[in-house]
Amino acid sequence: MIKKKDPIVTGFFDMAEILNSWRVDPNPPKVYIFGKRIHHGLVSAVIGLAGLYKKDPYLVGVGIAGVIDDLPDAQHWLDFESGGDPNSIIDVV
Prior knowledge:
Elements: H1 7-23, E1 31-33, E2 36-37, H2 40-54, H3 57-70, E3 90-92
Antiparallel strand pairs: 1-2, 1-3
């Protein structure tokens, strides 16, 4: 049985709540770093792996939720399509 206080579960549902609030927007903004689009699934995978490395189950839960949410775009995670301001470190369009 899953305990509600389990850090993986807490991380998962915290991230799911953030993603649900983002999804309400019919045209959610896209994030570009140095002019290249970064998908939240890729960032989530890195967060989840960092959680495994640091033995932090909360980060693992966050990573799992983000990866699951962005699975339909997984084939584009490494495309790094151009957009936004290439002279800006982070640009949200």
